[in-house]
Amino acid sequence: MRAFLLLFCAGLFSSFSTVAYNVVVAADGSGDVKTVQAAFDKVPNNNTSTFTIFVKKGTYKEKLRLTSLKKNVSLSGESKTETILTYDDYGSKSGVGGTDYSYSTLIEADNFYAENITFENTIDSRLAAYSSGGQAVALMVNADKIIFFNCIIRGFQDTFYTKGLGRIYVSCCQIEGTTDFIFGAGIALFENCLIINKKNSHTTAAANTSQANKYNYVFLRCKLIAAEGANSVTLGRPWKLYAKVVYLYCEEGAHIKAEGWSDWSSASYASTAYFAEYKCTGAGYQPSSRLSWTYQLTDTQAAEYTMAKIFAASAASPAYSSSWAPAVQNLTCNSVITEVSDDLLKETPLSTSPNPASTHVDFQFSANSADKATLKVYNTEGLLILEQQNDILLGNNKISMNTEHLKAGTYLYSILLKDQTLNGRFMIVGN
Fold first, then answer.
1. How many domains does the chain have?
2. Which of 160, 164, 275, 387 is surrounded by the fewest CB atoms within 10 Å?
3. Residue 160 belongs to what domain range?
């Protein structure tokens, strides 16, 4: 069942049990190597074909570096929440050498792909011991054509560092931190991601060092929420000149300040920054109160923020050697931000749990017309894991869903009818 769940829930190209990986990592010795760095070291220099690495569940405390010659690596974890790559360096720690060397994982090789992995730095900058010099990078990228899918990038100050001028696609990931926890240069598209603010501070600190670059950070259909105690947060501030950050169709929680942004007390940084939003939602989206030098995009301007345009060769100056279309188009991923509200999690009563011996859940409802109904099922992290369409009749209806391959737990559902949407929760027990 495990292999099917990986394919079904996370949208992997393949499952552990059916594909031969180049290297399997297992801390308990059941794989080819015991450490992730040992697997990285096995990648041939100047590698031209995809080199696949599978990491079994476990916590791997390693300071990892994939050097620039080891290209075309695909790194897959057995479980997003239980396959953890972690370390505890920080900027002012003796011998580290500053923020640039505080990383837990550093990717310097082009064409890198990661899925179902937690990248972590455990240094909590909120603690007195790290209040000065507590910058602690969980994941640092200095390469081009990089993809992270269904990953957790977890830390505190300076969690995710996009150091170089390369292109990065981050899809269906959870990113959390305190201050400037998504920061750097390059071009990065964050799509359907959950952004968690852990402190009253700033979400991004962009530094697009090339004035001619068209893009820097783009957040598309992301959701921004706050951890307990965070209630006054900005969408970002310009770290250096020509910072560009745009949020489109994002849901912004009430913790986002009315002014939206910060100028980092630098008139020159603010004067060259391009900070904008487009058709966002949520209690934190207050376009009329935003800082005067920031923007609300027009429809024509928003049309420039497509994946093809963001990752085009011409998006940077000097231009990239080629345009890039990240190869994740067939992966199923969706967010609850436009279809299932937080209130659903808090208030909707659970439906009756199915018989543990049954492999189906039945959804019963009344329809106002004969038509089609679309059933969407999400896990509690907001990822779409199942979608099916059924013909329905006027009046009472029943849709059956096969649950044989779902883990025990709580799930959210939406039934989309022609004239209404029915939301709820259900439990799977005994699978």
1. 2
2. 387
3. 2-315
Answer whether residue 328 is part of any domain.
no
Q: What CATH number corresponds to the domain at position 236?
A: 2.160.20.10
**Burial environment of residue 66 by CB neighbours within 10 A (0 to 12, 13 to 18, 19 or more):** buried
CATH number for position 355? 2.60.40.3080
Residues 346 and 281 in one domain: no
Q: Note whether residue 326 is domain-resident.
A: no
Q: pLDDT tens digits for 324-335?
A: 998 763 355 544
3-state DSSP call for residue 114? strand
Distance CA 375, CA 100 (A): 46
Decide if pLDDT at 217 tops 70: yes
Report the catalytic residues: 158, 180
Cβ-based neighbours of 88, under 8 Å, separated by 6 or more: 61, 104, 121, 122, 123, 136
Q: What is the pTM of this model?
A: 0.76
Give the tens place of pLDDT for each residue, 294-325: 999 999 999 999 999 999 999 998 899 999 99
Is residue 356 reached through a cis peptide bond, with omega within 30 degrees of 0 on the bond before it?
no
Q: Which residue has the higher pLDDT, 359 or 299?
A: 299
